[in-house]
C-alpha cells in the first residue's frame, strides 16, 4: 500500500491546475455567452427577449450535473463524442452563461434610466450607448457578484469527475484509494480549495465595499 508523499502531492497539485484551467475556460466562454444573453434580455425586440429568457430559465431550472450528462452522454447518441475536458468545459460554460447573464442584466438595469435618455439625446446609437455610457457604470455594480459567482464555479468543477475528468477533488479520491489516508489527503485538498477560493471571496467583499462607497460619494 502506498503512502501519501511527494509524488501524490504533486499529482494533486497538477490536478488543481486542471481545476483552474477548467474554471478559466468555462468562465471565459460563459462570460461571452452571458454578455450576449444579457443584451438580448434588454433588447427592444420581444422575440429576442423571450428567446434569451427561455434559455436562461431552462438552464437555471436544471442541475448543472444534468447539463454535464447531456453534453457527455447525450451528444454521443448523435455521433458526437466529446472528450471529458471538452464536455466539462462546455457544460460549465452553459451553466455560467445563464447565471452571468442575469447578474449582468440586473447590473445594466440598475443604471438610472436618465442615463439612457441623456445618451439618446446625444444621438448615440444603441451600441454607442452601451459602450460609452451604460456598461462603464454597470461594470462597477456587477463586479462583486461576478467574483462571488466565480468562487461558486471553482467549487462546482468538482462534479466533472463523474465523466472521468481528473480535477482536484477526483485526484484526492484517487490518491485516497491508493493510500487509505483520507484525513490527510482530503485535508490537503480542502486547503488547496481554500487557497483558491478565499482570496476570491475577500476580493468580492472588498469590491462590494468599494462600489457601495463609490455610490455614496
Show the helix and strand layout:
Blueprint: H1 6-41, H2 46-61, H3 64-74, H4 84-109, H5 113-121, H6 126-156, H7 168-179, H8 182-216
Helix pairs in contact: 1-2, 1-4, 1-7, 1-8, 2-4, 3-4, 4-6, 5-6, 6-8, 7-8
Notes on the structure:
The protein has helices at residues 6-41, 46-61, 64-74, 84-109, 113-121, 126-156, 168-179, 182-216. The protein has one domain (6-216): Orthogonal Bundle (MetI-like fold), CATH 1.10.3720. The longest helix is centred in the N-terminal third of the chain and has 36 residues, at 6-41. The chain is flat, with a radius of gyration of 21 Å. The model has no long low-confidence stretch (mean pLDDT 89). It contains eight helices and no strands. It starts with 5 loop residues before the first helix and ends with a helix. Helix 1 runs antiparallel to helix 2 (46-61). By secondary structure, the chain is an all-alpha fold.
Shape type: flat
Structure class: mainly alpha
Listing every helix as H and every strand as E from the N terminus to the C terminus, the arrangement reads: HHHHHHHH
**Into which percent range does the helicity of residues fall?**
over 70%
Number of helical segments with 4 or more residues: 8
Question: Which consecutive residue ranges, at least 5 long each, have pLDDT under 50?
Answer: none
Distance between the termini: 63 Å
**CATH homologous superfamily designation:** MetI-like
* Number of strand elements: 0
Strand content: under 5%
Q: What is the fold-level CATH name, i.e. the topology?
A: MetI-like fold
What is the arithmetic mean of pLDDT?
89
Number of domains: 1
CATH class: Mainly Alpha
User: What Rg is obtained from the alpha carbons, in whole angstroms?
Assistant: 21 Å
Main sheet properties: none
